[in-house]
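Dear U.,

Please find below the material for section 3 of the report. The protein was modelled together with zinc ion; I have listed the sequence and SMILES used, followed by the predicted complex structure.
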Amino acid sequence: MPEIPELEHVSGVLRERLGGRRIAGVEVSRPIVIRLPREEFEAGLSGARLEDVRRSGKFLLFEFDRATTMAVAPMLTGRFQWTGDAKAHARTCFTLEFEGDLAIRYIDERFLGKVYLVSSERLDTVPVLSEQGPDALDPALTEEAFLQRLRRYRGQVKNVLVNAKFVAGIGNAYVDEILFEAGVHPFTAVKDLSAERRAGLHRAMVSVLGWASERAAEEIGERIDRKPRDFLRVHRKGGEACPKCGGAISEVSPNRRVTSFCRACQPH
Ligand SMILES: [Zn+2]
């Protein structure tokens, strides 16, 4: 699942290369991810000028001059790709051609992504986006604000951190990295964490998302379809040596969701 580090960079690349350009052509090949009638989607985008691309949580928001916004939630397997970077992909859902001979396709292996086109004033009608909490990188989400929000939650810390209603933008990969950095066991209940360890969660979140965003930007460059994860320290590294203590990293998959952590460094 693309998370903050990848999406933050991808939104910047798209803004830089496509901002100010009009859409010259819209080709829908797999309408399943598009949450409005295909004809409305095509008519709504054809000829529209892209003014900005920004990220909110795990959404990419494409703002057009018609006071409309295309909101894209890539979910597990959605991604954009420059059409010049690779041949047409069988799971291409739609392609947007921009003036100046630039085009992007949206690919989704499992068709779980969701694409909306709404009036920019009605972003509150987009499910999940409308209900999500502050972005994990929002400067307004200070340690104090984070701790205040955390008081409303009691369940397993991993589940809370990936809950977009709590804080938006953290998914299954980076939550493992954040918990490793904080030295907190992923299944510990929030209600059992001391004040010091709660504050440590916030510090780890800011630190991990900061360095990971820099690394992701370096590795992705202009290849916006890439999701580099080699530099992660524990996620999906089960059996490998823990970078802190050298012991073996544990990996479990309750509910088919991989959780990787070090039992020595994250005892509780
Ligand atoms: Zn360890």
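For the text of the report, you could mention the following: Residues 242, 244-245, 247, 262, 264-265 surround zinc ion (CB under 6 Å).

Regards,
Y.
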